[in-house]
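Re: your question from the hallway

Yes, I did run it. Sequences:
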Amino acid sequence: MERKTRILIAKPGLDGHDRGAKIVARALSDAGMEVIYTGLHQTPEQIVATAIQEDVDGIGLSILSGAHMAHIRSVLRLLKKKKAEDIFVFAGGIIPEKDVLKLKRMGVLEVFTPGAATSEIIDFVKKARDKGTK
Amino acid sequence: MEGKSLAQLKKIRQEWETDLGKKGLKERRNEFFTRSGIPVKRVYTPIDLEEAGFDYVKDLNFPGEYPYTRGVDPLMYRENLWLIGQYGGFGSPEETNQRFKYLLSQGITALTIALDLPTQMGYDSDDPMSKGEVGKTGVAVDSLRDMEIIFEGIPLTAVKLVGTLANAIGPIGLSWFMALAEKQKVPPTAFVGFLQNEILKEYVARGAFFLPVNAGLKLVIDVLEYSARHLPNWLPIQLCGYHFREAGANAVQEVAFTLADAITYIEETIKRGLKVDDFVPQFFFFLSANLDVFEEVAKFRALRRIWARLMKERFGAKDPRSMRARFHIYTAGSTLTAQQPMNNIVRVTAAAMAAVLGGVQHAFLSSMDEPFQTPSEESARVAIRTQQILAHELGVIDTVDPLGGSYYVESLTNQMEENVWDYLKKIESMGGALAAIEKGFYQTEISSAAYQFQQQIAKKDRIVVGVNEYRIEEQINIKPLKHDPKSEKKVVSSLKSFKKERGGLAVKKALEEVKRTAESNGNLVPPIFEAVKQYATVGEISNVLREVYGEYVGGKGYF
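Structure:
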């Protein structure tokens, strides 16, 4: 049997708004994936440790507080350090256009901003996994 | 209506319905519902009120009279406008001071300080947990010194209402305003300070907590007790529905969960030896102003009626002020779209109008650029102007409760009240708000409602203009917020040098007193007030609390 796609939805930092994170988690789960949601207030270290421990294909980071640059940079660095760069990273939240470009250059595969449909996110994750090495 | 004419009316309605059938008219949907799922009939008539046993005096009465359905004041906006406020603050205290001076020059009468998340959660700006978060979502306040900078050249009496959130750090927030009043030589009776100071909803919907639930609750009650005894004109709590709603709750859940939490705060404060009439008159609600206009109006009216009945019948309140549900509103950020963002001005206007038609006391509105950033000066100004246009140009404020007596709005108000009581009974049977939250009841109800709503949008059962219909190719052209990109660095380095200059002995002694009081379960406001006056930082005080109470440990998130 084919291994199910495994995704970690994570809330880095102090931001407590997780309506979007929960909706994405549920939508991916309804689409047949195995989804783990970290809950609030996770450090980048905790997120990367959970991702490796749970052997996920991808991490979705949700941030609405404006602290996305610092937290996402840390997650990417830690993945590299732990030689887990095969885990793809996508992000969502209140993220200005100029930061979207910066994040993509840093290695974030896709950034979803307000109004994104859950179907777009599901399609993205499926494609990202197919291209992936896991 | 007399029995005879009612029977006649029913006959006429029957004929009218039959006639519609004959003409072969067809409605564009099989069923219509409000956002909370209340079925909406084709048309409402006196029959609906009659069948619900509607009694004008018992259910509505006159404005300013029990059960306050038509408003908490007899004259409402014919006497005074609601307070036109704005929520603001970002970056460093200096930047926020500039912004506040600008906002004040635009005619606001109330001011709410937005704090950054480290401040709200008891971390100093130089704490490793604060990295990347300093000055985002609000201004960084580490100590009283920052409050002094924010209010440099701004007397606390410049507006009628001034306050901040401080949900997890209530005693610190209260102390900042008390200390600032001392510095400005303004007696606390000369202005109304307010705090949100409402921790229960943080564990469910907003996430700005750091202590375990019982300790978080103790801090809230300490503030309520202290305020009842020493600051009777201040508003030390906002009973919050807004955040449940933003997390996905519907209007019924919003009111029900807020009231269930309110019951907990009341019961806990009574344990301090206070009577309801000693402290409940200082309560205010903080509710969402959302887009289903009539349901929103019904929500505000139903809340007032339920609260009045709850206070009188359940808690035996005698003072009418305990029975009046007064509320702040904030327009629902979650209804704004990043697509064609100028349209947000229209959404905000409609939501704010619902609140005004519903009898609001204090409003602040979202800015059109909120899906992108902390509001720019221009978009914040538009939010203020929107309120001023509502007040002066639309003709919606010249009679009290203009929708009172509408067959539809009264029917919705009745239905809303009934649905809220059902939820309250359910929560009661679970053992009250604390138990319901611990069981995850609020959380699962809210996330299910949020997911359902999202599904409706995905299936286009619900149209969101510019998002799932009427889309355009567009280049978003939002004026960026002017802010100092280096403000985090500056705040951190200024805090570090401040801590060195400050002199540590008085701070150390004050913090020891905070610790002793926490350990002996005393009211924490007096020792924290002293620590704040000695310029102890939010992180230093909060770390003492962490030492005594431990930290909240959440499990894995569920969805």
